[in-house]
Amino acid sequence: PARAVAAMADQDPKSLDELNAIIRKTEPLVPGATQAVLGEGPIGATLAFVGEQPGDQEDLQGHPFVGPAGQLLSRAMAEAGIDRGASYLTNAVKHFKFTLRGKRRIHEKPTAGEVSHYRWWLDRELDFVKPKLVVALGATAVLALAGKAIPITRSRGPYRFDRHDDRFQGFITVHPSYLLRLPDEAKEEAYAAFVGDLKRIATLGH
Ligand code: URA
Asked: Which UniProt keywords apply (predicted)?
């Protein structure tokens, strides 16, 4: 990994396309992923959303937030009046990591070391996209953007990421997959709170 980081720092992509070409041909830090899943959305998007890492469906289809969590995110964005197609969606880590359980590929959370390995890409990506507001979806995105672990429950809402303070406003909320894992009786309220966050995000983006 140390050599990979040095190699990354030597790269000097001049555009998001050049950066994505580098990401696409770089081997996953942990072997297994089908492909790198790149960020998607227009350059100059007002809002950027950062997730954790691609899931099973994202890995197979090659697009971010297309599996169950992504579909929940889409629904919540629509309810909050956010145009998903006008937003930039990406992940802290660009390759799916999993353990096999029978034939099922079970998502495995990236380590802090993996997050910092991929952080250079995320930073450069956001340099090119230049969003006004960046939303961290869950703890891994927070770790990537802040450069340190921050408890989400205490810091949920508008947040100043010191490393990026001159470049964009920040916002911390939960990851949509957290909502999927909640027991049924807690889901509705947590989902409503998530939509509430997205409505605030929409307002801050104006
Ligand atoms: N979860 C994420 O964090 N990102 C995706 O792209 C899909 C699920």
From this structure: 4Fe-4S, DNA damage, DNA repair, Hydrolase, Iron, Iron-sulfur, Metal-binding, Nucleotidyltransferase, Transferase
Residue 206 confidence (pLDDT): 84
Is the pTM here over 0.90, yes or no?
yes
Distance 106 CA to ligand 1 centre (A): 13
Strand partners, 98: 107
pLDDT of residue 8: 66
Domain at 2-204, CATH from 3.40.605.10, 3.40.470.10, 3.30.950.10, 3.40.50.720: 3.40.470.10
Between CA 170 and CA 159 the distance in angstroms is 5
Regions of the chain short of the pLDDT cut 50:
none
Mean pLDDT score of the chain, rounded to an integer?
A: 95
What is the b/e burial string over 11-27, where b = at least 16 CB atoms within 10 angstroms of the residue's CB? Answer: eebeebeebbebbeebe
Q: Which of 38, 95, 142, 175 to mutate to test the pocket of ligand 1 (most atoms within 8 A of CB)?
A: 175
131: Cβ below 6 Å to ligand 1?
A: no
pLDDT of residue 165: 86
Is the CB–ligand 1 distance for residue 91 below 6 Å?
yes
Report whether 176 contacts 137 (CB < 8 A). yes
Span from the CA of 53 to the centroid of ligand 1 (angstroms): 5
